[in-house]
Design goal:
The complex is a heterodimer of chains A (about 260) and B (about 350). Chain A has helices at about 5-20, 20-45, 55-80, 90, 100-130, 140-160, 170-180, 195-200, 205-220, 230-255. With about 260 residues, chain A is mainly α. In chain A, helix 2 (about 20-45) runs parallel beside helix 5 and helix 3 (about 55-80) packs across helix 9 (about 205-220). Chain A is globular and about 60 Å long. With about 350 residues, chain B is of the alpha/beta class. Chain B folds into two domains: about 5-25 and about 40-115 and about 160-250, P-loop containing nucleotide triphosphate hydrolases (Rossmann fold); about 255-320, Reverse transcriptase/Diguanylate cyclase domain (Alpha-Beta Plaits, 2-Layer Sandwich). Chain B is about 35% helix and about 25% strand. Chain B is built from twelve helices and 14 strands. In chain B, helix 10 packs antiparallel against helix 11. Chain B starts with a strand and ends in a 6-residue tail after the last helix. In chain B, about 45% of the residues are buried. The chains are: A mainly alpha (about 260), B alpha/beta (about 350). At the A-B interface, helix 1 and helix 4 of A face helix 3 and helix 4 of B.
Chain lengths: ~260, ~350
């Protein structure tokens, strides 16, 4: 690995992100925070939802934000840069094994996803206060889960970004990202699906389930959630799978 | 030390249209669904290309679109995986020692592939950073190059809004940023106005004088003639001729080409044309015509006119080409470079 080239590329991505900071921030936070406001504040305040829903909702929103950010941060630039303009060519020609460029993209996406997730907690807490009960009994476990979720998002972004064409970005969101979010235990805990046993079992193939449930397990352990002993290896497995798949697709796209 | 390039029996078969050359930007659902059922399209882009580029020379690959020029450059620059054969830059096997190769080459692609998220100056400085240049070094070099390529006034703008010519100059500046020993230019003057083209030629020659090896692809004879020390003419993935522009031109029988078109065919007339003094070779051209390779041009026309008149054949068109690489290409392939 060529460390100078690797960090120069990270610096390039940071530079571009800084240049687009305002649109990135709006795109990352507006939708999840509106969701927090309507479901956590309005629905709970008007009595449609029980007060505990606030605490239950926030980890799910954090998962959505992280996954959305990571996928977007890695997949969208890759889709654009591998198109006609081949903007990525310059970096593919840098004196570094091209696999490291894929790693760099994942690292950059992970950092963005982590930052987005960490911002959602205090902002969501402000919006939902009073009556939100975040506990965080094991900070280190929380860090581990957060990093695994961010890695899942960016590795997923790599796999998607190197598999989807520009013409199919809309489909990628409506056929992959949206179902993943709705069937990802983000707005409800997995245990709430006990009345829908088939769905409850089928959605276990959705990695976002483990992300939301994992964050619930570390932020609001007072609610029922999937055991962390299941969540951590599942997330790790998905991460390895998505990264290997993404790397393969990346090589396919890079070298003809 | 100047660095040479060598290829041995390079072959490349694309299983689907090549991503850059054939414009496979979108795909259709039907193609996606029926994967495996339809026979895959096989495109033989290179069919055993062996070349040797001498350190320090400007070497040209001349050929029509789709001849295999870009694929050759793609393989030499690690961007295309060869189906067979080997390529070396200096002593490095291109496919096996990609990083070492990438360190000593600079590449200007057929299409501008600039980083649209950055300004002109940033494109250069980040490129320098990828190659490990210090902050001071890359700032200085970027400035020199921006000035040389007459881009200083737009240096701090995003390149998205640049004209085609400016993007092309920018691509070349970027390729030179890390001072590579070998510079690849894939159709560098396509779409440039004559003035910019001259600037480009000057810059390429100057870079070459600093002891750098340059490999350039073009389908422009004038460019190949003016710029290249040696040329390979390439068609359908084969090298069909190799030498200095002068040698190549001299290899065409006679040098001059007189293309004649008649109203109808006449075998007898063909024989008479062959017998004209100075005519080295006559090739029949469908439907009614002949290409005469000869060591004179204009003075043949009146004799040809007399012969056709005597044979009772209508003379439809006469075209004289002076000795040129175009004639050479035609002589080897029976097709014009521009066809």
């Amino acid at each position: 690995m060529n460390r100078k080239a690797f960090f120069a590329m990270l610096a390039r991505d940071a530079h571009v992100a800084r240049r687009n900071a305002i649109p990135i921030v709006l795109q990352t936070f507006v939708q999840p925070l509106m969701f927090v406001f309507i479901f956590g504040r309005v629905m709970v305040g008007s009595g449609f939802m029980p007060p505990e829903y606030k605490s239950m909702l926030l980890p799910g929103i954090m998962a959505i934000t992280m996954v959305g950010t990571g996928i977007w941060a890695v997949a969208m630039p890759l889709i654009a840069e591998f198109q006609f303009t081949r903007e990525i060519e310059d970096r593919l020609l840098a004196p570094m094994d091209i696999s490291w460029l894929a790693v760099e993209k994942v690292v950059a996406g992970t950092i963005q996803a982590l930052a987005a997730g960490l911002v959602v907690i205090p902002v969501g807490w402000l919006l939902l206060r009073p009556g939100i009960d975040l506990r965080l009994p094991h900070p280190l476990t929380f860090v581990a889960v957060a990093i695994l979720v961010a890695l899942f998002a960016s590795a997923g972004g790599l796999a998607l970004g190197c598999s989807v064409n520009q013409t199919h970005i809309g489909l990628m969101f409506s056929l992959v990202v949206a179902p993943m979010i709705f069937f990802g235990c983000t707005y409800y805990p997995w245990s709430a699906l006990s009345k829908f046993p088939i769905m409850q079992n089928v959605i276990l193939v959705n990695p976002l389930v483990y992300a939301s449930e994992g964050l619930r397990g570390v932020l609001v352990p007072q609610f029922p959630h999937l055991s962390l002993a299941a969540v951590l290896p599942a997330l790790l497995g998905f991460n390895v799978f998505l990264f290997v798949l993404g790397l393969r697709q990346f090589h396919k796209k890079s070298v003809s | 030390m100047a660095v040479g390039i060598r290829t041995q029996d390079l072959r490349k078969v694309y299983m689907s249209p090549p991503p850059l050359a054939a414009g496979s930007g979108g795909f259709s659902f039907s193609a996606q669904r029926s994967k495996g059922k339809q026979p895959k399209t096989e495109i033989k882009a290179l069919d055993g290309v062996s070349l040797e580029v001498i350190p320090g020379e400007i070497f040209g690959l001349l050929g029509p679109n789709g001849a295999g020029k870009s694929t050759t450059v793609g393989i030499l620059t690690t961007r295309v995986r060869p189906t067979g054969g080997q390529a070396w830059i200096a002593d490095h096997d291109v496919w096996k020692e990609q990083v070492a190769v990438k360190r000593i080459i600079g590449v200007v692609g057929q299409r501008p592939n600039l980083d649209f998220s950055l300004t002109a100056r940033e494109i250069l400085t980040f490129h320098g950073a990828y190659f490990g240049q210090s902050s001071h070094e890359r700032t200085k070099r970027a400035n020199t190059l921006l000035e040389k390529f007459k881009l200083l006034d737009r240096a701090d703008q995003l390149v998205r809004g640049f004209s085609g010519g400016m993007m092309q100059r920018m691509s070349i500046a970027r390729a030179m940023m890390h001072d590579p020993d070998v510079l690849f230019l894939d159709e560098p003057s396509a779409g440039l106005d004559p003035q910019t083209r001259l600037l480009l030629w000057e810059i390429i020659q100057e870079y070459n004088k600093a002891g750098k090896t340059i490999l350039i692809t073009t389908h422009n004879m004038e460019e190949a003639d003016a710029l290249c020390h040696r040329l390979a003419i390439i068609d359908h993935g084969h090298v069909i001729a190799l030498g200095t522009p002068r040698e190549l031109k001299a290899s065409v029988p006679g040098g001059y080409l007189v293309r004649v078109r008649f109203g109808q065919s006449s075998p007898d007339l063909m024989k008479r044309l062959e017998a004209l003094s100075g005519v080295r070779e006559v090739r029949a051209v469908e439907p009614h015509g002949a290409d005469l390779y000869a060591d004179r041009g204009g003075s043949l026309v009146s004799e040809i006119a007399n012969l056709t008149l005597a044979a009772g054949v209508e003379l439809v068109d006469v075209h004289i080409s002076e000795p040129s690489l175009e004639n050479l290409f035609l002589h080897h392939t029976g097709r014009s470079l521009r066809e």
